[in-house]
Each structure stands twice: as C-alpha cells, then as structure tokens.
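Reading a protein record of the kind used here takes only a little practice. The integers have meaning only within a learned vocabulary of local backbone shapes. With that in mind, consider the following protein and its fold in token form:
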Amino acid sequence: MRVATWNVNSVKQRVPRLLPWLDERSPDVVCLQETKVSDEVFAAELGDALAARGYEFAHAGQGQWNGVALLSRVGLDDVRVAFAGAPGFPDSDDAPEGRAVSAVCDGVRVHSLYVPNGREVDADHYHYKLAWLETLRASIVDESDTTMLCGDFNIIPTDHDSFDPSAFIGHTHVTAPERDALTAFEALGLRDTMREHWPDERIYTYWDYRAGMFHKDLGMRIDLILAGGPVADRVQAAWVDRKARKGTKPSDHAPVFVDLDTAPDGNVGPVVPPPSRPAKVAAGSVKLPHTVAD
C-alpha cells in the first residue's frame, strides 16, 4: 500500500497538478491538508475525477481556511471527522476546525492532519496547538499499533530537520513543548518513518516561496508520517516527492510517501529528485523570509 501526505495549500489552485500527480505516482491512500474549501466545493471540484481513478474520499472542510481530506482506493471505512475531545479555537468549546479526518484503509487507521500553526510562542494559538496535540494523542492510545498519523505537523522534529536551527530561535515549531508533544506519540510506539529509514540525510518538505529558498534547498521538515510499530515494520520505502514542488504554481510543501510491504519504485532515496545545488550557509547568515510556515 502506497500512502502519501501533501499540504496542497488550496486544492482549487492545485487541481491541474494534483490529478496528473495521482496518475503518475499512483498512491493508494492520499492525505491532503489546507484544501481551503467546503465539503460541497471539494466534491464538485474533484468528485468525478477521483471516482474515475478509483478513489473514495472523505473531506472535512472549513471554507477558505484549513480543510483536510482522505482519498483511498483500498477502502474508506469508519470515517471520523476530527477526533474525540478535539478542542476548538478561540474557545476550546467551539466546534473543531477542519484539521483532522481519519478512516480505516486496508486495515490501517489513517489520519490526515493539519496541526495548528501556533503563530507565536505563548500566544493563545500556541496553547491551542499544544492542547490539540495532547487530545489527539489521548484519542489514539487504544489503537496506536494500527494507526498512521499523516500530515503537516507544523513542528520541526529536531535541529537536523531545518536548514539552520539558529534561524528559528524564538519562533514556534522548535520549542521544547512542541517537540515534547511530538515525542509523546513516540511513547505510544509510533515511529517517524522517514527518519527511521533515512536517519542522517538532508530532508525537507517545506520551502518558503520567497527569497529563492526552494532552489537553494533552504527548507524544513514538518510534513510527517508517524506509524504504529506493526505498520512501521512494513515500510519498504520512504521519500519526499520534490518533483511536485517544482514547476508552475506549486504548493510550498512537497508530498511525503511511504510504501508498505512492497516498493513499486524500489528504495528510491530520501528526496526524489535530489536538489542539484543545495546552498551551504553559515549559521545565522540566512533569515527566515517570514516567521514560520503555515
């Protein structure tokens, strides 16, 4: 089973790229984030094209903000929008935002997740992010072995996962509480499939549109696939589809893939294709074009 996750940063803008990408990469399960459309618009824009390719879908939309989807051609059972106890924002008692949808796909519960950004350290949205992650963790305790958490986590797991750790000092995505929240999933037995497969490689999944960050390969790894132990044991390949970040009108994120049981393209490497001339920068010499990724 080939599973992919991709923050498309507006599915309406990305349709001309999304459909050919599905044809080329042939994923069995796809998790999309930041669709930025309602459920009705998602169905109108993509329903027929997905059905023609054999995909069922579930979407949790929120109009022009957030929005997540699951596409599957290996089953889409027991669909759940959000998760038990998911907090809202700005009031925790508000209805959950369009940030999580899950279903059982060929025996694995796959979650498509768009974790809150956090915005600024110690801001209300930052505390919402931490509460959201803790509630998600609590909700999967009883099924962690058969779970995959896929999506934009808005957390850089370690200093090794950004082009320059010093550029992020004082910002979200790298604080100890955020990283501790990510580590809490590991305590349940979930594993970072990409880093487990490629522990020492330079791997990014997001590059800012500005300042030539993509061409210099000055990015960060915030799009993750965490898998329970029995699922992670099945991983034969894990890779970032950098090709999908190239060309005309790309998302600022690249898709992340894992192949379970078999790897149709072989163990293709961590980044496909690899950057041709990644910049080498001295610590502190490059400033972030803006605070942090969405």
Notes: The domain at 2-272 is CATH 3.60.10.10 (Deoxyribonuclease I; Chain A). The chain is about 20% helix and 20% strand.
